[in-house]
Amino acid sequence: MGEPNGEPPRGGDTSAPRPENTIRIESIRVDSDHGTLRGCDEPSGWRWSDRACPEPEWTPASRVPVSHTLGEKVRLELTLDAAAAPPGSITLEGEGPGDIQFRQTIPISPGTSSITLVSDHPLARKLDALSFDVRWSASEAAVLAPAVTSIPMFVTMGPPRSTPMAPYKEDGATPRRVAKAVEWAKQANSLDPHAIVESFLRRFPYYALLPNPDVPAEFDHPRYFNEVGGAWPMVDYVAASGECQAIVRLVRGMLAQIGAPGEARMLVVWADPDQGNGEKPLVADWEKNPRAGLSKTMLVGEKRLSAALVDGPVVEGKTYPPSHTRLPDGKVSPGLNRYEACLEFSHGGTTRYYCGGVGVLFSRHDILKVFWGLVWVEFLPDEGFRVEKIVKRYRGGEAPPRESPRDRIRSFFRRFARRIS
Amino acid sequence: MKWLDDIETAQSEGFDDLDGRVDVPGQALAESRHWARTLFAQGKSPYDAARPVRRLVHHATKAAPDFLRHEYDVDDLHLSIVEGRSFVLVIVSRGSLDVLALPENERVGAITRVAATLFHPVCVSGGICFRFPERIEEGTFFSTNPDLDPRLLGAWQDRLDAGIRGGELVFLAYKRLPWMAGFADPFAWLREGERIDRKPRFRFPFRRSGPKRKHR
Fold first, then answer.
1. How close B198 gets to chain A, by Cα (Å)?
2. pTM for this one?
3. Does B211 sit within 8 Å of A211, measured CB to CB?
4. Residues of B in contact with A322 (CB under 8 A)
């Protein structure tokens, strides 16, 4: 196993010819790590493995990655071999990354012994993937070998999940997954889970709805229902994106890797002409009801009309080609939809909605504004449609005003009143 | 029935044998593979059949839309699958299964067995649950859920149609995109660069995240 940044392991061969007063570091165990990483023996794939990473984390022959909570002190257990050193006591010092320092006076006697060291200062309060390099020294003319030890360390908000609960096991921790989650979460420059989720979602400006030929078939793009890592391979094909549900699974998986709190789920949101004249957002949790959405028809004389949410301006009585047909002028015709799929993320009493390609939204009412309107249409034999009636317009083409603090307070009370009622 | 008529028009115009060539846009091919995995049981789809598959293509004309055709054998059945942008029509050749030659009381069982062999389970109970008419004869059509409008299905499993046409057993499955109402343009499927999901979106502004600046 190399360093988190991909560089080859360091601190491996600093053992100079052994003088009489050399104390050898036989192994280092990171006692304060989470101990939840699995699959250290499968460093290249995204699949989760149930094999725990071995301990101790450092020996002259191996370096095993660890995860550690940010803002906490590091506790190490060193096994020392002082076979050749004269009995007495020494002060052992270790200088780690940042403010991390170890210092302890220990008795030395011939043979192997274990000592526990606790860092003077905690790790910095930031997500990081670092090489936990410690430069060792000792007083009383003793020499520690090797002089430098290195352990790949992922600094996270809490313990990564050891036992996955997701059907495709995206939430189970492996070193490669934690490394990627930390890399992405660092971009948020914040420890606020909402900011972290938002930074994840910035990478996926669109939800993919159809398979992309650039993604190997084994990953089952855009659904990512596979046994080779579930939604995780999506991080290698970001441009191809994925279905909303796959991105929800990936976001959940990433949050589980960095021990971040919060709940992500996939919502489908639609409106119904017979409920509040199309103003009321109807919501379903896709994982509980994958068939949810607008499926309303009615007979008017001989005509069978279907309700649909249209994503572009239409005119009553006019006929349109099938949804999203490329027109001769290069534009795309209006499309008919059954729902809008959004990722809902809740944490700390705040909920945000991320709908494919439309940015971050603050309420379910806003989600309906993704559509131009709610219409009754008659489908034609060539799959085109005629708009029979516009039930509700959600926007006239202009952007809704940016939400001011006053709007947010109003929105809060409106939601509060709705909940009470 | 318009789709069946379209297929007949395409047949009369002629299909081109791909003969191993990949003369189909990558996007359409990826979609075809995707739906094959979605609809058909393991080892029964035109992309993972054990025996060779002959592929043909019909590029859209004014009279008939784009089609892909796959011809291959599954178990003892010879299949011809005609795939449009929004549906898959499976034709079981009469030579390999002549439903009308069976005694009337065995026809339902034979159709159910073929459907269960070819497709992923359709009904929640795990079996194909067609609502069969009293008699199965030439021109009979039936469905698992005839009351649902194919243009508004939440998933393809919600409705599978079948029937006897020209003496052959046919199945019709809808390639439903659950977010969409209606179907996409069947004449533009095999057009280079065509993607139904590249739809124009109204974009809300992204909120700036990160630590808030302190005002002094």
1. 8
2. 0.79
3. no
4. 182-186
